[in-house]
Amino acid sequence: MNAILGTPEFLLTLAATLLLLWDAISNPTPRLLGRISFAILVGLFVYVIELDPKMNKTLWSGIYLWDAEAKFFKLFFILTSILVVWSIRLLESKIEVAKSEFYIITLFATAGMMLLSSVQDLVFLFVALELVTVSFYVLVAYHRSQTASLEAGVKYLIMGAVSSAFLVMGSAYLLGVTGSTHFDAINLALRSSEMKPEILFGLALVLVALFFKVSVVPFHVWAPDVYQGAPLPVTAFLAVGSKAAGFVLLLRLLTGPFAGEEVAGYWIPALAFLAIASMILGNFAAIPQRNLKRMLAYSGIGHAGFLLAGIVSNFFQGQAAVLIYLCTYLISAMTVFIAMSAYGKNSDSDHISNYAGLSRKSPWIAVPMALGLISLAGIPPCIGFIGKFTIFIAVWQSEHYVIFAAGVISAVAGLYYYLGVVRTMYWSNPTDMEPIEISFQTKIVLGLLSSSILILGFWSYPLFSIVNKIFLF
Amino acid sequence: MDIGLQHYLVASGALFSLGLFGIIFRRNLIVVFMCLELMLNAANLTLVAFSRFTQHIDGQVFVFFTITVAAAEVAVGLALIVAIFRIKGNGKTESLKELKF
Description:
The structure holds 2 protein chains of 2 kinds. By secondary structure, chain A is mainly alpha-helical. Chain A has 19 helices and 2 strands. Chain A has a domain at 260-473. Chain A has helices spanning 7-26, 30-50, 68-90, 99-116, 122-140, 147-178, 183-192, 197-214, 222-229, 232-254, 261-286, 292-312, 315-344, 358-361, 363-377, 383-397, 401-427, 440-458, 461-471; strands at residues 57-59, 64-66. In chain A, a hairpin with a 4-residue loop joins strand 1 and strand 2. Chain B has a single domain (5-92), classed as Helix Hairpins. Helices cover 77% and strands 0% of the residues of chain B. Chain B is built from 3 helices and no strands. Chain A binds chain B through residues 122-123, 126-127, 130, 134, 137-138, 141, 144-145, 147-148, 150-155, 157-158, 160-162, 164-165, 168-169, 171-173, 175-176, 179-181, 224-225, 228-229, 288-289, 294, and chain B through 16, 19-20, 23, 29, 32, 36, 39-40, 42-44, 46-47, 49-51, 54, 56, 58-59, 61-62, 65-66, 69, 72-73, 76-77, 80-81, 83-84, 87-88, 96-101.
């Protein structure tokens, strides 16, 4: 029954291709296509939940692994994509041409991310990563008549292509030294021979490529521009989906073939340094930002630093903390992005002052958005606190006290700019008092997201039990 | 003189660095794109050289994937450059300065 393993990705790609053909032949309305994409993703979510995570099986001569962690990340990416599709539906009127393809390319990018969560081979890693990245090139530059979007597209393209060149070069060295691209074979080769500098060189190049994807300092320079210029749903997808995809690869590589103490002795200090730099720079550079998307980009760099700190920490505890943090980040960030999309239908600017007095104009948008921002800042009753807390515990117990101190300082800096936006929404006078209409369904989505922020914040047992099951198979 | 693995690695390393320098210092988008291709092809050269000297076929298979993916990237990239030419009338990197703090 091996054939059933690859079905989630296969079905999604097939569905996306069929939608593309259907769109070309009979030209359905984008609204309908959006509804169908949403239904496909929800169906896929239910299907993947039903699959048994315990069958540790592989496909295609071992390059595709199905385990509990792969299942977790596949569900994560599908959920992200569901919310991104919702955000596209809200902002559909803003897309000028080819509205239907926006949904379809999103589906392809999701399929790529789902493949990435099962990667066990460097060639497969490269191809799946490029499926995601090339889809993103198109999505980022989707507003073809706006120079900001095009500029963001070009910047993302150049950075993405540089990082994939680094990835291929690094893989070439790993292949040359160990004689294989498969993770298990690399692992075996590393354990059976002494340490060679070529391996470190190859690993460093591969890691640089992945650091570009997750936008860690010093490889973060593209992020603020691209986040600001891209259409809002794409910014959300980049901030949550693309970042998580980079982290699943880091986890697969660094807890798989490169987990041995000899290699880890080299990458742990390097990652610890990058984690500190990202947390500090990301959170402090976000403070003076006046564009909300740009601010979220810098705060995303800070979150990447927290996640790296989790990877640096003790083996299982650190990994579990990374997964929990990603879950909390998904829920809080997507709440903010969907609230922004619901508001963005009527407004053109992402300037923070544009959100002044939002609470009086539309409490249905303001309350979830404020909750999401507070949760991103990590204030106790919200779910974001649980994420930060588990990371801090993991860091403290693995005795990385410098990272801990940097984390505390940057978390405090984070409070300042997140709450600054909340203050603008609640205590500033709006320029106009025109109330904003949002649909009943969007109210339900926002309500579900914000209640999960609060409920999982108070009672986070489900979150922990899901993540614990992954490591206790 | 025998041409060994090291010669190939040095050559591909030099090409890779040249590509990176070109991306950083050149001001024309088309040239930047050519430099990106140069970097990818330098990586391909490394793969083929390793494959030749260690007798593993995997490296050559990898090269086929890289070439295919690079073609897809160029297709998207050139479409982007054309769109920029239509709006700005040139392909200079200096004209892309709208997004900043």
